[in-house]
Amino acid sequence: MVEKNNVFNLRNDFPTLKRKVNGKDLVYFDNGATSQKPSSVIKRINEFYQNENSNIHRGVHTLSQDATSAYEDARNKIQKYINARMEEEIIFTKGTTDSINLVANGFSREILNKGDEILISAMEHHSNIVPWQLACEYSGAKLKVCSVSDEGELDMEEFKTLLSDKTKLVAITHVSNTLGTINPVKEIVDFSHKLNIPVLFDGAQSVPHMKLDVQDLNCDFYAFGAHKMFGPTGIGVLYGKKKWLEKLPPYQGGGDMIKTVTFEKTIYNDIPHKFEAGTPNIVGGIGLGAAVDYLNKLDWESIHEYEKQLLDYATTQLSQIEGVRIIGNAKHKVGVLSFVHQKAHHYDIGTILDQLGVAIRTGHHCTEPLMRRFNVSGTARASFAFYNTTEEVDVFISALKRALKMIL
Amino acid sequence: MGLDETAEELVEDFNLFEDWSDKYEYIISLGKELSAMKKEDKTEENLVKGCQSQVWLVAKEKNGNVFFEADSDAIISKGICALLVKVFNGQPASEIVKNNLDFIEKIGLKEHLSPNRSNGLVAMIKKMKAYALVFSNT
After folding, report:
1. Nearest chain B Cα to A366, which residue?
2. Which residues in A lie closer than 8 A to residue B51 (C-beta atoms)?
3. Residue A8 class from Cβ within 10 Å (0-12 exposed, 13-18 middle, 19+ buried)?
4. Is A50 domain-assigned?
5. What is the model's pTM?
6. Do A48 and A134 belong together in one domain?
7. Parent domain of A381
8. Which residues of chain B make contact with A347, given a CB cutoff of 8 A?
């Protein structure tokens, strides 16, 4: 178990957590939107711009070669961190959304035909819905949606019945950003693969809470961004199995993604560069590498145990407030606590909490179909990271009580 | 009372509040006092859709003056609606079109009305002004 002292040591790594908001100590419970950044990541980004800045891949001079090494080292770190077979399977993108769009674009042009199907779920973020709708529009394929139970769990019985020889891809979130549900990813892969159906996971919300092993998971694609896993914004990763990445056409054209260009025919570069047109987010990649270095030092077993205790504590405290309904009561959850109040609007709650220094998120969380499923217009969502504490939960609960007193 | 006087009075009221909670309590009480819009008026057409809270707005014109009715599902938004209605109600359309809304900044509610707060209120003000513009041209 992570001793309290250890959490406080970890908190010290995150300068933003020390600031005041509206005259109060900040309680940052909006980690599902983005995480705070440790000093080591901030320092690495600063160092690059101070001393190392150069474009990568094509330069013969020292600065460019050093920048190229730093960027490609980051790719190597990520490959090791998620245990991909090879570096070529790590594509740098702008973020989770960009990663999913890359696959959806490729599938619509190369794989999908009229009558084919893509299976998603009712708990998907818009980022894992709309790219597939675009792909379907382009190719004539159909979108199928697996239901979610009242507790916020995938209906795995229905999932199995929805797969058929028409299904060309299963695209499902690993962890729900709104409900916190951890989906049975292994079961999803095993069952889909029995029918030779590839699987993509949206990993945006899982990466801050768990270490990943893509070989063990055996999924075909895994999309995630850096900024929720303590790295910078504007950079993300698409992991794809080599055979799939080689099969898919380039997403965008430009520099770096080619071998030779003539006006008659252009020969594309090999993976991963085939998918990385133009000057990439160099400092973003290097910053993500620094975030991975940071995550590698953590004791994940203790973190799991600690985050579970924090969620259990917060859930118990929140449940005791009259009129509160928690949305998302899955058996396996990360530290995400979505709730509504029978009389207070989530916007009012969020506004007053902000005045009291507590940052939560309110609204539909880019999951409008899921909101309709639970018959709510939006929720208030507190989402935790390993640097949050039970004392902060106490501040949140008393702030919430004060807000309700003002609103009702 | 003219538009500017009403706005000035409001700014003075807000200056009396010592901290944020008094200010919000006042806005909330304004929201609670504002009578609810008739159900049949809460149509898709009258909805000023925002990301966070829903705001409905109806406007009528009488002898060159504009009369607003507004409502919201969130009480703070409703309170701000009440505030705007208070300032603009019964005023000549041309005055509403001209107003630069600096009273909002003066009462310290600008954060609620900045475009990055997608709560429907920026859209509501735009709609209020659009109504006034239409009425001032007729």
Report:
1. B51
2. 363-364
3. exposed
4. yes
5. 0.94
6. yes
7. 4-30+299-407
8. 52-53, 74, 76-77, 119
